[in-house]
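Pilot study result, target chain (187 residues):
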Amino acid sequence: MIQKERIILGIDPGTQVMGYGVLRVVNNKPEMLAMGILKLNKNDDHYLKLRRIFERIITLIDEFLPDELAIEAPFFGKNVQSMLKLGRAQGVAMAAALSRDIPIFEYAPLKIKMSITGNGKAAKEQVAYMLQNFLKIPDENMLKEMDATDGLAAAVCHFFQTNNPALDKKFTSWKDFINKNPGKVKL
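Predicted structure:
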């Protein structure tokens, strides 16, 4: 039996803390490979922070060889300077992926939370709890840094968005879909 495998790198960009999670999917079954954070708050130079983000993403790419990058999109806030810095952090992470020809998928924070918990306004703790149960992650790994679980959540959200077996099949009509999937539709 051929096992289809793909690796998804999830990123929660930030200028103080960047979170990441790596998800391996084999035969449509996800498993966490790694998650962690990059602390950037010790450095006041914004450009050096951006360089550290780029370097860390490249290191993660070289280590895990992801097939796709899922990244949280910046949310719209009131502080324009904060949004600009966050957008730069996201852009640097994207540039790192692009430099290795990795396709990028961007998800709004609301979409990620909705995908994981069913509630777009869920607290970080709820997201972490759902990820822990879904991926069967031991307690000691989860609640250390919420930014890490946010990165992992981006990867899992991407898995959910792209893991639709119906997408692998070509259908010419609804009738064709029903004929090829008799157990999925009740008439």
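One observation from the pilot: The CA atoms of residues 6 and 25 lie 5 Å apart. A full batch analysis is planned for the follow-on phase.
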